[in-house]
Amino acid sequence: MDLIKETENDDPILKFSPAALNDIKETWSYLSERGESVAEQLIRAILEKCEFLSQNPKIGRERNDLIINLRLFPFKKYNIFYFPAQSGIEIYRVLHASRDTVQIFDDVIDETK
Question: Which residue segments constitute the domains of the chain, with CATH numbers given?
């Protein structure tokens, strides 16, 4: 996907986990059924919000109940989960708000056992 770009030069760090990249691609695929411009518009908005978060890593709500140091920032109908880094963030997941977040994170924990 050409819209996703990670950090360059002195910009705050903005990285995406493989799961986050997959979430974004799945969202684009789903929305593109209604029209590629609709999908592109939402993905651009999400990515712009991710860039904003990389400059303001403490703005999201802590979700230590899911994973230690994880933060959540709701945006439109999506939840952006991320980890603050020393000078930026790593986007961990981008999930539709209707998804069962607790179950998704429980599944990740179960996979690591």
Answer: 13-112 (3.30.2310.20)
